[in-house]
Specification:
alpha+beta; globular; three-stranded antiparallel beta sheet; single chain; five-stranded mixed beta sheet; 44% helix
């Protein structure tokens, strides 16, 4: 399996080529989780994987609690579907707590502080109220708990991992927190093997072909948990090989017949690049000319042509207009230029603005 074959398969499974999804929740549930510390970028990551979505529609789904943002997996902020929040937290939180243990000690976030702070949060947010982080800090201070900077972030993350807090609706440009118990209904817990199998199937059906190392990176699971997860998934996953590597995918995976070239303006932290331990296979090692000396960065806004890293882009934005700066890593063909222009038009339609490209 060549890099181009791998790219085509992943583009299909990530729903970047063809999709029947129409709602943000469908996209997020399919991917399992969408990395989302840059919220605007995450909305575009969702928008590219569904039909007819706009940025306003994704934000509306977020405000309604159909998709929720919280800390889980590695951990960093992720968007998850409402029905997946509890079992994903139950699976990943113990490992994250272990990784955070030294931070808890350094910042004085002991069992007493955790219990008192979460009591404050429950009282301040009951009856479907939502508060910004600054407002949560004020509520903590009123209760005699000093929290600001890293300590506040740590206390709030601990409450997220303990399934007390998750995202609330956006207030203006401010993100808020709300109670998990009021944003998502109770659900029967999954046993460990069932949760591991479910996470493995979610990942490999949407991100495959991928290696066990890729899954371990994305999920934050231990090597033993990764092996257990794939074994528990059974026939829901199948093994394939390429370049002397063992890849896993869902058996129903098919490569769609598509017209080449295709282009995607992928936001920073997009699952297409960030969700794999080995990212160079679709970047510098695949097609980037050695003479360019360009460093592969999976955390920026990336231009992909036929699924391979082809450059970077940025969007400063202005009212009613979106001026995109696109910097290819090599001289594009006329067909590739046209594909990138089509991707820019799709981005503009998603944002509800006109888009033009300034080529670098």
């Amino acid at each position: 399996m060549t890099a181009s074959d791998l790219a085509r398969r992943r583009l299909c499974n990530q729903k970047l080529l063809r999709t029947g999804f129409r709602t943000p929740a469908e996209v997020v549930a399919w991917l399992g989780a969408v990395q989302a510390q840059d919220f605007a970028g995450a909305t575009w990551a969702i928008g590219q994987r569904a039909r007819g979505l706009t940025a306003a529609a994704v934000v509306a789904a977020f405000d309604a609690g159909e998709i929720l943002r919280t800390h889980l997996l590695r951990p960093t902020w992720h968007l998850v579907a409402r029905g997946d929040l509890r079992w994903m937290l139950a699976l990943s939180a113990p490992r994250v707590h272990a990784a955070n243990a030294s931070m808890y000690r350094r910042l004085g976030v002991d069992a007493g502080v955790v219990g008192r702070s979460q009591t404050v949060f429950n009282h301040a947010l009951e009856n479907h109220r939502s508060l910004t982080r600054k407002e949560l800090a004020a509520a903590l201070k009123d209760a005699g708990i000093e929290a600001h900077g890293q300590r506040l972030a740590c206390i709030v993350m601990r409450a997220e991992l303990d399934a007390v807090l998750c995202s609330g609706p956006v207030h203006g440009k401010q993100f808020t927190y709300a109670l998990v118990d009021e944003r998502t209904p109770p659900a029967p817990p999954l046993d460990d093997d069932e949760a591991l199998a479910t996470l493995a199937v979610r990942y490999f059906r949407s991100h495959g072909p991928a290696t066990l190392r890729d899954f371990g990176w994305w999920s934050g699971l231990t090597r033993q948990q990764v092996r257990t997860a794939v074994a528990a998934a059974g026939r829901a996953l199948e093994l394939c090989t390429g370049d002397d590597l063992a890849y896993w995918q869902a058996p129903a995976s098919r490569i769609a017949a598509v017209t080449s070239p295709t282009a995607h303006l992928l936001p920073n932290y997009d699952e297409y690049f960030v969700a794999y331990r080995d990212r160079a296979v679709l970047g510098a090692a695949s097609r980037l000319r050695a003479s360019t000396g360009v460093r592969f960065d999976a955390f920026g806004h990336l231009l992909a042509v036929d699924g391979l890293l082809a450059g970077t882009w940025r969007s400063p934005g202005s009212a009613g207009h979106e001026a995109l700066t696109v910097a290819p890593h090599w001289r594009l063909t006329h067909a590739e230029y046209a594909a990138v222009s089509a991707a820019a038009a799709a981005f503009g339609a998603f944002r509800g603005v006109d888009s033009t490209i300034a080529w670098v």
